[in-house]
Amino acid sequence: MEGITEGVNNLNITDSSASNNKKNRIQVSNTKKPLFFYVNLAKRYMQQYDEVELSALGMAIATVVTIAEILKNNGLAVEKKITTSTVDMREEYGERPVQKAKIEIVLGKSDKFEELMEAAAEDVIDNDGQS
């Protein structure tokens, strides 16, 4: 218990509200949710905010790239910005940091976004009526 208390007492909290509390950011994990959960969530975020930022670390980078490609290939999104970097991560307090790769992909609505989303919604309504 002392280790936990010591870790909390030594925790550095910085005000990074400009980057970490974005409402249109999706932090993707390749273990927590299925791929199309993130694809559908990104569509909803684009409807609400006109753009979405997909972010991932390490092994989840491939998942973020796949999500972005699905949205682009279906004509829903256009690529606005891609940023890569490395971040220092510690598995446990006191261990030396390990660098992990990070990617951030910003996607915006395509010109056909609204039209494609309406057509998809109509397909759902049509398919619900035909049982």
UniProtKB/TrEMBL annotation:
InterPro entries linked to this entry: Alba-like_dom_sf, DNA/RNA-bd_Alba-like, UCP030333_Alba
Taxonomy, superkingdom: Eukaryota
GO MF, one annotated term: RNA binding
Positions of the DNA/RNA-binding protein Alba-like domain: 24-85
One Pfam family per UniProt: Alba
Gene Ontology CC: nucleus
Annotated protein name in UniProt: Mitochondrial substrate carrier family protein
Organism from which the protein derives: Hibiscus syriacus
Lineage: Eukaryota, Viridiplantae, Streptophyta, Embryophyta, Tracheophyta
